[in-house]
Amino acid sequence: MRKKIVAVIGGHTCKKEVERIALNLGKKLAKVGDILVSGGLSGVMEAVCQGFQSAGGLTIGIITSYNKNDANPYVDIVIPTGLGFARNVLVVKAADVVVALPGESGTLSEIAYCLQFGIPLISLGSWDIPGAVQVKTVEEAVKKVKALLK
């Protein structure tokens, strides 16, 4: 049976509150998803990887550069692309479901790819765009992910 992959997208810089939410989200997602994929860098990506890994989950980081050392320390498997932000399409295409946290234009591009490709998208405090399921809490996001992975 194929492993279930959850992607979490969000800013490479973020406020402490968003970092705390991402860490908590990662911990809880490890109980419903087999693998976490992210852009593998700092901010939301680092916090969610830390949480997922701390709960025993496997993390993949699809990074913008060719240098594996650019990935955050909580990425188990680093995929260096050298593609810059074009790697965003790979992050979302690798996932069965995507959770978006606050971010800027890079996050918005990943949201657009989700909508373009019909990948289920949950927005937790991120862009309010038609087609994204809006949730207010980590628990609500995890419940939606679990239902979508069935």
Secondary structure layout plus pairing:
Elements: E1 5-9, H1 16-29, E2 35-38, H2 44-54, E3 58-63, E4 77-80, H3 88-93, E5 97-100, H4 105-117, E6 121-124, E7 133-135, H5 138-149
Parallel strand pairs: 1-2, 1-5, 2-3, 3-4, 5-6, 6-7
Helix pairs in contact: 1-2, 1-5
Short structural summary:
The chain has 150 residues and is α/β, with parallel strands linked by helices. The protein is built from five helices and seven strands, in the order E-H-E-H-E-E-H-E-H-E-E-H.
Which features would summarize this protein structure in a list?
single chain, 150 residues, alpha/beta, Rossmann fold, seven-stranded parallel β-sheet
Question: Can you describe this structure?
Answer:
The protein is of the alpha/beta class and 150 residues long. It has a domain at 1-102: Rossmann fold. The protein is built from five helices and seven strands; from the N terminus they run E-H-E-H-E-E-H-E-H-E-E-H. Strand 2, helix 2 and strand 3 (58-63) form a beta-alpha-beta unit. The longest helix is centred in the first third of the chain and has 14 residues, at 16-29. The protein is globular. It starts with a strand and ends with a helix. The mean pLDDT is 97.
